[in-house]
Design a protein that fits this description.
This protein is α+β, with helices and mostly antiparallel strands and 286 residues long. It is 22% helix and 23% strand. The protein has helices at residues 4-13, 24-38, 77-80, 86-96, 247-261, 268-275; strands at 15-18, 48-50, 69-71, 100-110, 121-124, 132-133, 138-144, 155-157, 169-170, 184-185, 195-197, 204-207, 213-215, 224-233, 237-238, 277-280.
Length: 286
Amino acid sequence: MLTPEQRLFYEENGFLLIKNLVSEADIERFRQEFERICRQEVKVPGLLVMRDVAIAKSEFVPDERAVSKLQDFQENPELFRYCALPQILKYVECFTGPNIMAMHTMLINKPPDAGKKTSRHPMHQDLHYFPFRPSDHIVCAWTAMEKVNRQNGCLVVLPGTHKGTLQEHDYPDWEGGVNKMYHGVQDYDPNHPRMYVEMEKGDTVFFHPLLIHGSGMNQTQGFRKAISCHYASSDCYYIDVRGTTQENIENEVQEIAGKKYGINEVAFKDTWAFRGRLVQGERTSL
């Protein structure tokens, strides 16, 4: 699927933008399903519903205003349809090979900033969250569900940082607070050239899990929606993150899993194995 120019661009920069990959009709269906979930008309096993730290304290009204992110929608057939779209998997296979697992799913509903700048996402590397390797066989697909620009908080990337190593992450020291599990790279070069990835509805960016990226705050009155899935080759393998820089996220995920499912002892890798779903080929290792 990739032209030599596209392959070279990804190898050099760590991301690749493909225009107009997902249809308006599909995006509208995903939007309607998101609203049904927000109105609590449909219950999804294992779904994590997240709210912005600045607006979570307001009285909950069951509409889209309260919800800033849905995570782990693998048990919702309509949203999970995104992860198996043939036009996306054609590109994913270029990075993972033919055996493809959908490992992590999100629908992001970035709210208008409440004045505390909490709608920002700190600069981070996605591999910080993943206890599986090799990183070159993992890729994220991130699709804009509407026009995404600097005003409403588009992705900002540090091109080429995927060639480095996994950095230490923790919560940034932001006065307005920071959303749960929004860890950030503790030490990166603030002078590194950055690129703002502005997108139209249906555009999809594929990026490497070591690419340092984040997003600015939403300075508009509307919500900014995107849907994404992290894919990995099913030939990837799990690693033990104890004693590494990833131990802090392991502890946090285990704490959340304990509260959610009432289980005290759950291995970090098992929280991923439970959520992973085969979308193409064979489930060989993950």
